[in-house]
Predict the structure of Methyltransferase type 11.
Amino acid sequence: MPLLPARSGKVPRDAVHHPLFARCYARVSVRAETRLGMGQVRERLLRGLSGRVIEIGAGNGLNFGHYPGDVSEVVAIEPERRLRRLAVEAALRAEVPVDVVPGAAEALPVKSEGFDAAVVSLVLCSVRDVPRALGELRRVLRPGGEVRFFEHGRGGGRVMTFSQRALDRTLWPALSGGCHLSREPVRALRDAGFELGPYRRLLMPEQGPVLPASYCVLGTAWRPEASA
Ligand SMILES: C[S@@+](CC[C@H](N)C(=O)[O-])C[C@H]1O[C@@H](n2cnc3c(N)ncnc32)[C@H](O)[C@@H]1O
């Protein structure tokens, strides 16, 4: 789906512009698939999905190879230009149809209630406005539709949570493409009106040093059947 041209006739600036981060993420994330076990986590994240799926902030498309064959279509939203280009390449290799679309979580360029499931992995840390992004997610899911999430956030003892908050207020977001360390994805999903399904907390990497970004959660939530 192309971006609408601005009134001037020029293509509008990308909603997210982090060229240096994008370059680094494209390299580091591929290594993390095997070295940190991220490939296995993605497999668990997407297992059993079916129907039409929307993936928010798809990055370089590392989830695409893990979608099960029962998924009829993935619409993958990615605002960052370099990552989007890599996602398009990954989409060509995927076994399910994947359409990579520019756009931001806070204003999804798709119709309401058009999806059976939504996927967010390592994205809620980076969106500018979490409640708005989750409101959009709710809008585009059909009633009873499922959210699969793999996110990192606040965790550890007092020293760790203090460090996470301090980093969020200083260097971290600028260095890491707008990422925040001390967000609480499970609480945010609940506050946005999703019903929480099973979720489990895990450290990434599962072995080795515990870092401020290690505190992860992998799980499922639903848009309630009767929600507006
Ligand atoms: C750490 S990367 C994760 C990429 C991918 N989901 C994965 O699992 O590897 C964060 C991604 O969120 C995207 N992002 C940042 N702000 C966003 C926004 N407002 N809406 C949608 N995606 C956003 C970035 O461009 C980037 O692709």
Observations:
- The domain at 19-222 is CATH 3.40.50.150 (Rossmann fold).
- The first strand starts at residue 51 and ends at 56.
